[in-house]
Amino acid sequence: MQSELDLLKQRIIELETENAELKAKEAMFMARIMELEQNAKKVIMKLERSTKESKKRFAKLEQKQLQNDAVDRLDNSSESIINASDPIYVNINAIFIEASSKVLRNSNYWFKNITIGDGCRMI
C-alpha cells in the first residue's frame, strides 16, 4: 500500500512538472502572439499610410494628365485656327519681323537711356 502511495505521489509530481512546463510554453506562445500582433498592426498602419499617399499621388497625376490633355486639345484647336502656311499669317509675321528690325535699328539711343531698378542705367 505504501509503495502504491509513493507511485501516486511520484505521478502527481511528474504531472505538476509537465503542467508547469506547458504553462511556461503557453506564456512564451502568448508573448510571441502579442509580438506578432503588434508587428501586424505596424505593417497595417504603414500599408494604410502608403495607400493614402499613393492615392494622393495618383489623384495629382490624374489631375495633371487632365490638364495636359486640355492643353493638348487647346493646342490642337489653335493649330487648326492658325495655320503657319496660311498667306495671311505669313504676311502678318513678315510685317512684324520687318517692323521689329526697324525699331531695333532706330532705337539705339532709347536702349542707352533705359533705367533699371534702383537708379541703375543700362548702357
Automatic annotation (TrEMBL):
<protein>
    <submittedName>
        <fullName>8391_t:CDS:1</fullName>
    </submittedName>
</protein>
<feature type="coiled-coil region">
    <location>
        <begin position="5"/>
        <end position="64"/>
    </location>
</feature>
<keyword id="KW-0175">Coiled coil</keyword>
